[in-house]
Design a protein that fits this description.
Blueprint: E1 11-16, E2 22-24, E3 41-45, E4 89-91, H1 96-99, E5 103-108, H2 118-131, E6 136-140, H3 144-156, E7 159-165, H4 170-178, E8 182-186, H5 190-204, E9 207-208, H6 216-221, H7 223-231, E10 239-243, H8 248-262, E11 272-278, H9 283-289, H10 316-325, E12 329-333, H11 335-349, H12 355-370, E13 378-383, H13 391-394
Parallel strand pairs: 5-13, 6-7, 6-9, 7-8, 10-11, 10-13, 11-12
Antiparallel strand pairs: 1-2, 1-3, 4-5
Length: about 400
Amino acid sequence: MLEKKATGSLFTHLQCVECGKIYPKNVLHHVCADESCKAILAARYQWKSNTLTKEGLKNRPSSLWRYREFLPVEDEQNIVTLGEGFTPILPLLNLKQYAAGKQVLLKDESNNPTGSFKARGLSVAVSKAKELGVATFVIPTAGNAGGALAAYAAKAGLKAHIFMPTLTPSAFKTETRLFGAEITEVDGNISDCGKLAGEKAAQAGWFDVSTLKEPYRLEGKKTMGYEIAEQLSWQLPDVMLYPTGGGTGIVGIWKAFDELEQVGWIGSNRPRMVAVQSNSCNGICTAFHQNAPRSEYKDSGFTIANGLRVPKPYADKEILKVLRASNGYAVSVGDSDILLALKELASNEGLLTAPEGAALWHAFKALSQSGWIKSGETVLLLNTGSGYKYLDNIE
């Protein structure tokens, strides 16, 4: 029997973000059990017990697990890692004609295992689920999340079932099968996949790791916020643009900034957060501009940015709260503009971003031209994945 080795985690409990109900940390949970609520559950920590300092990070591994005290896994033997996290922040130097006096940075999540930011959430979610005794997972996916779950399940010696739209580019299907997962292709969008995955999970007893319908993918995604703060010497950018499909990242990064303030590593200043969507699925954008508390279901069909085809994010309310609390904004972009932006980044910066990431470049130019982003501001674009998987769409 392996000796239990503590990670030093400060994790204490789960809490519903809406009604505030507390849930124990040593039991599997999905969302709030109150039928009138069913909001997402967030991990909470005892910050007063923190002994880690900024200086103490310097000799830590260059992965998201360098922040292990601020993550929910308590026994290091349960950590399932492929070296995810601590991706580079790159200045965009060859497109200064569009920057107009602004510093434009791009955090490149394509450097993660399986080529996207999904590795973060699935590393932490699989690790914690393993700690709580899960043997079989199921997930609906637009592509990257399925590949990431398949990889981490393989690493952990566990089983994964992936529900994926038929229109998903072939690279995603191939990698997922190579990792040994079982794929079910669905003639529909990710919402259709989610419904079928949920039904099968209930029948077979599989653990459903759908976006924000369990607490721990959020904890992996929040580490992008920790890294941004550390990599920028604890000074946050003025504006941050994020491609928003399911929205775990935008909610997680905001959570990270709140936690870093609680431990005293940053102050109260926050970036203005910008959600960038596809014109095909721009329910968050519409709700933001209509000052609505929630988004409506919106799906106009195929987009080359598969990850943005999320008709109604489960955490729509939380995403909109972040945008408004940060004095942020929401923008939607058409496929033709996404493709032009992708080519512009590739041919000028040598970066073959995912279409979701390329949408941010077009949005930046539009917001800069309108004056919403001002001269002298530092702007960070968060590219969520590699364009190589999308070649079917791009071509």
